[in-house]
Please model this.
Amino acid sequence: MNEGLRTPGGGRIDRSRALRFSFDGRAYSGFAGDTLASALLANGVHLMGRSFKYHRPRGALAAGAEEPNALVAVRRDAARYTPNLRATQVELYEGLEAHSQNRWPSLAFDVGAVNDLFAPFLPAGFYYKTFMWPRGAWQTLYEPRIRAAAGLGRSPTLADPDRYAARYAHCDVLVVGGGPAGLASATAAASAGARVILCDEQNELGGSLLADAPGAGLRVDGRPAGQWLAETVAALTSNTRATLLIRTTAFGYFPHNLLGLNERLTDHLAEPHPDMPRERQWQVRAREVVLAAGALERPLVFPGNDRPGIMLAGAARSWLNRYGVLPGTRAVVVTACDEAYDAALELQDAGVFVAAIAELRTGADGAAAAQARAAGIPVLPRATVLGTGGRRRVNSISLAQLDDAGEPLAAQTQPCDLVLMSGGFTPSVHLHSQSRGRLVWDAALQAFLPGEPAERVRSAGACRGVFGL
Model:
């Protein structure tokens, strides 16, 4: 392990339990509580995959279920081979064997990357207009070759030896999301005598609080956020009217408040008991549903924003505060919201050199910018990104400030191995939409929010545009 990329302490990992794993046949080590992605970053590995069409290098963009790039396969044996798993959600265990996808002969040297050179000649759907002659070649030559090149990962060829369980349940209140809003909702309902089921897709409850720095000074109900979280989870765990389901994803909202949940039971275990089911599908009929699914950070669009080492600012905070990982040594932050300043300050406190904060908004005279300047971080207002450099990992970024006409002034190139970006947050309204609930546009947030419901459902916290504690 590259000890220089681990913080000396902190995080929610168990540093007393070192775990060995492999990625593409190479041995690495991490800690209990790591994900595959956090352990790879701690070992200095940012290249985790290749893009589908042009085979461009890809690294982790996010730190959770919204990760689009770091798709891997995990192999236990010939029959237990699972492709297209997000490395940010694969929990590390002793002996884990992971493989990258969509590359040949190797991830570092992928022959398919030649497609990137021909990108100007390969627009979307080009094959429908290009491979038209001779007429009979489409079915016998072109289509078979295109289909062989399509798809991500490969399916196992042996029958699945695992078993899967199902369960039906009824409750008074089903809470989807185990962050501060979901925990508070579940606590209030259980305290009122309701039978509560709370589910969350992560391996522990806490949501956004898991990525907050211990010294951030956040308080909930008059208590430090960490203390509130521990006490609230303990109280719910001991409450016989509450059922807490971690590693459980709510995947469908059906008529009459019937929700489908998928609980992962053994994927995080090194040696699962042979009698245990691998997953359990819940069908839950709830009298009331509370959606507390949080919000997703928006990436920014600029030339070369897909290189490994370019990630969301919130993801960097998760790597640092939850997993004790420094995702880089020299960073540039590009932002259109104040939350990214927290990431810059926390990384600087951890020893990362923050070269600049490129503020896309016109004004950069708020409290967050003032705090960054006081910490010695240059803040460039009314800035834009002209491009980035690097192949397997970002190594530079080109910035420019805009004049009154919106034209870029003199460009400046900053060497860096980490670029953080944040375009604000989009509330997660997926399940509300599945329930046939209406959406309303909020001009101030520039996002859709839950509107009039069609079921007995309400939204709480960030998924309804309320971002404060």
About this structure: DSSP finds nine helices and 28 strands in the chain. The longest helix spans residues 225-238. The domain at 299-423 is CATH 3.50.50.60 (FAD/NAD(P)-binding domain).
